[in-house]
Write a structure and sequence with these properties.
Layout: E1 22-31, E2 34-44, E3 49-53, H1 60-68, E4 75-80, E5 83-84, E6 95-98, H2 110-120, H3 125-138, H4 154-166, E7 172-176, H5 184-201, E8 204-209, H6 212-218, E9 221-226, E10 229-234, H7 236-241, H8 246-251, E11 256-266, E12 269-274, E13 279-284, E14 296-301, E15 307-309, E16 318-330, E17 334-340, E18 346-352, E19 367-373, E20 377-380
Parallel strand pairs: 3-8, 3-9, 6-7, 7-8
Antiparallel strand pairs: 1-2, 1-4, 4-5, 9-10, 11-12, 11-14, 12-13, 14-20, 15-19, 16-17, 16-19, 17-18
Length: 382
């Protein structure tokens, strides 16, 4: 597999001042009294691989269906490449959609499936053959052009569906849970293939997924949805390391959420009283405005940011607590520890297994120290 640069390392290809390819303003879809999508404002730029991440019922699929033209907004507007598409039918939009089920025609060959849309559009036969052959080469299916879908693996069927969607050269490709039908190992491999293909073709992809790892791996940016609204839009790094609120911190990855109040605040650093851990914590307040003493806050602490040790670490600039290993799980490349503090609060700690050994250095019921630096604790207002 040829490796290309990861698209999330770039800004949107048109640059910060560019006109968005997709512009949603006040987009709303109501079903009776329930707003499945509630006043969404969102810009998506040309060349992005943009993910909409949310749990079932968050509104992400309804949003995708409105972009495709399969559902009509109750309010608001959809602009694609500067043209108002709010009331335009699906077949007149510069958009194609790849469904979770792939929806391949079982009686047609791979080549016929990919060519179907072009033939329906009246593209000359010679152009159809040329474009289909080129697209099958891009997705590495040229040798399977004569096979029927039932003779293909799950990953091969996924690539046929992708080729069929891309061969029409849409400005925007919508993908509804594109990798959900694949097993874990194949899904991880296909994520990189999808990124490489998108980077090579330059088509804007919008992916709907409930899989956090998939969204983090694929995306230039992620929109986290909850109950029809956008909780945060940002790069994978921004969403993970600087969550906008408790929902995002808890939904994306593993996290320890601690309730606290401000004891002291100065120069972007806060000292917090935290009954959960039975003492005080130090945190940088770079993700929330400075708060007055006594203000209630939440602290988000990622398990991999916590150091676990049997010996007391240096305390300068760090929060250091004692605890007992309550549970542990060995996953080969890493170990997960659940450390019980004297208050009864459990902290989850993830440690990378860097040394090759079959013996655990920390066992159940061991007394340990947990520590982290001020920059690892993310302060949240809500």
């Amino acid at each position: 597999m040829t490796m290309h640069r990861h698209p999330q390392a770039e800004r949107p290809k048109d640059g910060p001042g560019a006109e968005p390819l997709v512009r949603l303003r006040g987009l709303t879809r109501r079903f009776g009294e329930v707003a499945a999508v509630d006043r969404i404002d969102l810009d998506i730029y040309r060349g992005e691989l943009f993910s909409i991440l949310g749990a079932s019922g968050s509104g992400k699929t309804t949003l995708l269906r409105m972009l495709a033209g399969f559902d009509t907004p109750s309010e608001g507007s959809i602009l694609i490449d500067g043209a108002d598409m709010t009331a335009v039918p699906p077949y007149e939009r510069p958009v194609n959609m790849m469904f979770q089920s792939y929806a391949l025609f079982p009686h047609m060959t791979v080549e016929q499936n990919v060519a179907y849309g072009l033939k329906k559009d009246g593209v000359p036969a010679a152009q159809v053959r040329e474009r289909v052959a080129a697209m099958l080469d891009k997705v590495r299916l040229g040798r399977l052009a004569g096979r029927k879908p039932n003779a293909l693996s799950g990953g091969e069927r996924q690539r046929v569906a992708l080729a069929r969607a891309l061969v029409k050269q849409p400005k925007l490709l919508l993908l509804d849970e594109p990798l959900a039908a694949l097993d874990r190992k194949l899904r991880q491999h296909t994520q990189f293939e999808l990124m490489n293909l998108q980077d090579e073709l330059g088509v804007t992809f919008i992916v709907v997924t409930h899989d956090q790892e998939e969204a983090m791996t694929l995306s230039t940016r992620i929109a986290v949805m909850n109950e029809g609204r956008l909780e945060q839009v940002g790069t994978p790094g921004e969403v993970y390391e600087y969550p906008a609120n408790r929902f995002v911190a808890d939904f994306v990855g593993n996290v320890n959420l601690l309730q606290a109040t401000v004891a002291e605040a100065a120069d972007g650093e806060v000292v917090l009283d935290c009954p959960d851990v039975g003492g005080r914590l130090i945190a940088l307040c770079d993700s929330a405005p400075a708060a007055a003493p006594g203000s209630p806050l939440w602290v988000a602490l990622r398990p991999e940011k916590i150091l676990l040790s049997k010996e007391a670490p240096a305390a300068a600039g760090r929060t250091v607590l004692r605890g007992t290993v309550h549970d542990l799980g060995y996953f080969g490349n890493l170990s997960v520890y659940r450390v019980e503090l004297p208050t009864g609060r459990i902290l989850q700690v993830i440690a990378q297994n860097r040394v090759r050994t079959a013996r655990k250095t920390v066992e159940w019921d061991d007394e340990v120290f947990v520590s982290w630096d001020a920059g690892s604790a993310v302060v949240l207002r809500n």
